[in-house]
Amino acid sequence: ASASAAWLDALTGVDGVEALVLTVAAVCVSAILVLDVYARSQKPKRALGPDATAKIPLALIKRTELSHDTTLFRFGLQSPEHILGLPCGQHIALSYMDADGKEQGRPYTPTSSDVDKGHVDFVIKVYFPNERFPEGGKVSQHMHGLKVGDTLDFSGPKGRYEYRGKGVFAIKKLASQGGGFEIRKAKHIGMIAGGTGITPMLQVMRAAFRDAGDKSQISLIFANQTPEDILLRPELEQCAAEHDNFKLHFTVDRPPAAGWDYGTGFVSAEMIAAHLPPPGPHTQILLCGPPPMMKFAVMPAFEKLGYTKDMFMQW
């Protein structure tokens, strides 16, 4: 009893209170450090490091032929627990050294995302030599010839646009603009894609559909030459069937003689007005496709319909 009384007397003294405070503080600091270490251990490892210019070699682990000129390439990350570490809406550069010792590279947007561990997927359309482009697409032709086990160099993240969910986009400002980000918020997200330009659109769509709290209304016009050229058509049509907040419209230059329920011809002002959200403060239109399509079809239509620069983003 006397020992307990002495202990209580010590605590009620100034020195005892100070000792108790220091002890509690030490315990709290230790707990915070333990929790921080635990939290760090639970974060997935990122394949892409802090240096966006550093090249990381990754090996092809699977390829799936989707059509005569389109292939799904799957590259393995450093471990089954790694994620790529690419913000939604951004892209990475794939490169290799050609036979002459020159680096050849091109930016691509994966069709997978950071919810996929251990690998990264790309849907690539190969551009063979033709009259307009005698050399064709060097990187796509190189990838067409890849075998399982072959490697490519990856670097990134790259790009100015990022989808942060629930209709929020962050646009990286240039250094001449003071740096930082411009934030845009949208209730209605329109998309115009041509050919392989569907891949960044698909990233944003998948992110929005995974989040039950993302109520963004999404509309897509996807332009191609023929129905056979439409990349990932089954998935897009499945999304339209499963999500009430997604509207899909295809248009092709050369439709079949029968059985085509979508549009024909180039993207026009009339097509945009019919299938995408109108200009307004809650509208953002995402664009990715061949430069001639954007210059001669989309931009004149935007000017006619009244879309301003703060209402669209071009990949």
How would you portray this structure in words?
By secondary structure, the chain is of the alpha/beta class. Helices cover 29% and strands 30% of the residues. The protein is built from 7 helices and 15 strands. It has helices at 2-12, 14-42, 138-144, 198-210, 233-242, 269-275, 291-305; strands at residues 56-65, 70-76, 91-97, 103-108, 119-125, 151-158, 161-165, 168-172, 181-185, 188-194, 217-224, 246-252, 263-264, 283-288, 312-314. The strands form 3 sheets. A 6-stranded antiparallel β-sheet has the order 4-3-6-1-2-5, covered by helices on one side. Helix 1 (2-12) crosses helix 2 (14-42) and helix 6 (269-275) packs across helix 7 (291-305). The longest helix is centred in the first third of the chain and has 29 residues, at 14-42. The radius of gyration is 26 Å and the shape is globular. The protein starts with a helix and ends with a strand. The relative contact order is 0.11. Residues 37-41 have low confidence and may be disordered.
